[in-house]
């Protein structure tokens, strides 16, 4: 009986794992279609992008400033003064899923983004706690996300330009220090990374065209 139960759980696990992978792929595809620049931003995964897109709604232009978006995501401080004491407390309202999405992006950047890593190092040296450190990146990220939601810019993929310069994926990958497969996914719209795409585009623009070999 225990063996039968374990087999049943294993089958259920594989089924659910497949369903999750299919849904993740669909979410990524929908986010890429709605706002590829948002999905391509540093540290932004499909689930975070989806939560932020839902929070912004069909008309993100209704948010007149990045402050209004910060308030929507519960990042704006709430006055809590008393008598002669002037202070503020954290906003516990707003869209909690959007707030959590910004927290996930911030924690991702703390691990992977050089600028955020350096900022974290400096703040730790000042004796700040992790909770205190993460508040500033979250506010900065909210400002960045607001502009991506209200004025999204196209993310370059470099495919056409690479063929015009007659360069191979291996040439580009060696210069950018990434795997050729990653650039292939980037060109086909299956991977989104705005920083890498911008570096790739700049390298293609600066690189001289290879002459056509005549036989």
In one word, what is the shape? globular
Terminal Cα span: 74 Å
What class, by secondary structure content?
Answer: mainly alpha
User: What's the helix count?
Assistant: 11
Unreliable spans: 210-215
Instruction: Give the assembly state of these chains.
Output: single chain
Mean pLDDT: 80
**Rg (CA only):** 22 Å
Concise overview:
This protein is mostly helical and 215 residues long. It has helices spanning 2-34, 36-40, 46-56, 66-72, 96-112, 114-125, 130-150, 159-165, 169-176, 180-187, 194-206; strands spanning 78-79, 88-89.
Protein model, in words:
Helix 4 packs across helix 7 (130-150), helix 5 (96-112) crosses helix 7 and helix 9 (169-176) crosses helix 10 (180-187). Strand 1 (78-79) and strand 2 (88-89) form a beta hairpin. The protein has a two-stranded antiparallel ribbon. It is 66% helix and 2% strand. The chain is an all-alpha fold and 215 residues long. Mean pLDDT is 80; it is low at 210-215. The chain is built from eleven helices and two strands; from the N terminus they run H-H-H-H-E-E-H-H-H-H-H-H-H. It has helices spanning 2-34, 36-40, 46-56, 66-72, 96-112, 114-125, 130-150, 159-165, 169-176, 180-187, 194-206; strands at residues 78-79, 88-89.
How does the SSE layout of this entry go?
Layout (H helix, E strand, L loop, with lengths): L1 H33 L1 H5 L5 H11 L9 H7 L5 E2 L8 E2 L6 H17 L1 H12 L4 H21 L8 H7 L3 H8 L3 H8 L6 H13 L9
Helix pairs in contact: 1-3, 3-5, 4-7, 5-6, 5-7, 6-7, 9-10
Provide the descriptors you would attach to this structure in a database record.
mainly alpha; two-stranded antiparallel sheet; disordered C terminus; globular; single chain
